[in-house]
Amino acid sequence: MSDASAGMLDHAPHFNSAAHEKRAAQMGMWLFLVNEVLLFAGLFTAFFMYRFMYTDTFRYLAFVELDWVMGTVNTGVLLASSFTVVLAVQAARAHKSNQVGLWLLATIGFAGVFLVIKYFEYTHKIHEGLLPGSYFSYDLSESIARVKGDPVKMSHIADANINLNNVGNGAPMFFTLYFFITGLHGIHVLIGMGLLGWMAKRAFNGEFARRNDTPIELSGMYWHLVDLIWIYVYPMLYLL
Amino acid sequence: MSSDTHKAHGTGFYFGILLALGVLTFVTFWTARHMETGVFHTPLAVVIATVKAFLVVWFFMHLSDHGNSNKAFFLTSLFFVALMIALIIGDVATRLPTANPNFSAFKEMRGPW
Predict the structure, then answer these.
(1) Which residue has the higher pLDDT, B93 or A205?
(2) pLDDT at position A9
(3) For residues A50 and B8, what is the distance between their CA atoms, to the nearest angstrom?
(4) Which pLDDT belongs to residue B35?
(5) Which residues in chain B (34-53) have CB-CB distances under 8 A to chain A?
(6) Deepest in the core among A19, A120, B1, B39, taking most CB within 10 A?
(7) Does position A1 have pLDDT exceeding 80, yes or no?
(8) pLDDT higher for B81 or A19?
(9) Minimal C-alpha gap between A143 and chain B (Å)
(10) Which ipTM value was assigned to this complex?
């Protein structure tokens, strides 16, 4: 339906106006994102429960076997990617379609860096046998012996009140949760890259020069959710 | 009727939010790894993460101008997430120590049962 009056936008016939249609689309997206939050919340709950049961093991593995540098760099990369998405949305609101495409490409670039770092983390863990359930083949006692021979690490362990005598039980469970949480998050990163890639293609075709910023805004919201989940995953897995 | 109801924030404003998120990431790291925070160790990290999440949701995702029903959806989901985690941790924390699979560690933590 093309409207004769100036300034009016096209909208589907069952909406009063384009603004009405946009609000409906936003609401649908928020409902979807709320579902996503609850999906991850189940895994977070499981993590906190097992962490409570095997506190020393979980904390030891977070301190010694996870690489906080990689985790922190990935946090920065995702925050930066969220920022470039915001700039894409801003460009869409200004109807600068090419700029939208460029900012989305920058975002996809950051997402790629995130996945490359994740790849190095995963290959290291698979190589060491730091794996879920019965696939766990890592020699924890050897790791503890190594830590005991390293005064710097021992002082960290002592500062953190980790009791090395209790480290052992629950180690495979830590990696079940580690791979489930980061894996599900990684799948979201991949989906987000696909989505933003599709949007970038549409942007370079000039679609967003015609006063329609809703698709960019909604896919941007999806990407922010990926960042949002990581904001919790980072301290949970890497720091605490 | 216009769809441009957004509050106008400039690029500088969003960059400020990004910087704040970076600073808070550093604070998370520092308080978790280099400070004695005792029982507040985990709650503090969750609180800082929630402040960061608020910045992302409110400004980056523009929830601030997405209407009250959307705000209500999001807050409701957070409420139920908090309820789920609190009740389940509460359950595990108040079980008889022998019901815990890692009983030996618990015995040491809590004294002679």
Answers:
(1) A205
(2) 67
(3) 45
(4) 82
(5) 36, 41-42, 45-46, 48-49, 52-53
(6) A19
(7) no
(8) B81
(9) 19
(10) 0.86
Could you tell me which residues come within 8 angstroms of residue A1 by beta carbon, excluding any fewer than 6 positions away? A10, A11, A12, A13
Cβ contact A125:A175 at 8 Å: yes
Q: Do residues A54 and A174 lie in contact, with contact meaning Cβ atoms separated by under 8 Å? A: yes
Dist CA A164 CA A168 (whole Å): 9
Above 90 in pLDDT, residue B70?
yes
Whether the predicted pLDDT of A233 surpasses 90: yes
Alpha-helix residue ranges (DSSP H) falling in chain A: 18-53, 55-64, 68-93, 97-128, 140-148, 151-159, 171-204, 214-233
Three-state SS for A2-42 is CCCCCCCCCCCCCCCCHHHHHHHHHHHHHHHHHHHHHHHHH
- CA–CA min distance A240, chain B (Å): 6
> Taking CB atoms and an 8 Å limit, are B4 and A83 in contact across chains?
no
CB pairs under 8 A between A and B: 148
SS3 A122: helix
Contact B14 A38 (CB under 8 A): no
A contacts of B88 (beta carbons < 8 Å): 45, 48-49
Q: What is the average pLDDT across B56-73?
A: 92
Nearest residue in chain B measured CA to CA from A41: B81
- Interface check for A26 against chain B (CB to CB < 8 A): the answer is yes
Return left, alpha or beta for B38; rule: phi > 0 is left, psi -120 to 50 is alpha, else beta.
Answer: left
Q: For position B3, what pLDDT does the model report?
A: 44
Q: Would you say residue B97 has pLDDT above 80?
A: no
Chain A contact present for B64, CB below 8 A: no
CB-based contact B25 A34, cutoff 8 Å: no
DSSP 3-state of A168: strand
C-alpha distances in Å from residue A205, one per residue of A34, A99, A201, A208: 32, 12, 6, 8
pLDDT at residue B91, as a whole number: 87
pLDDT at B13 over 60: yes
Mean pLDDT, residues A99-110 taken together: 96
Q: Do A7 and B25 touch (CB under 8 A)?
A: no
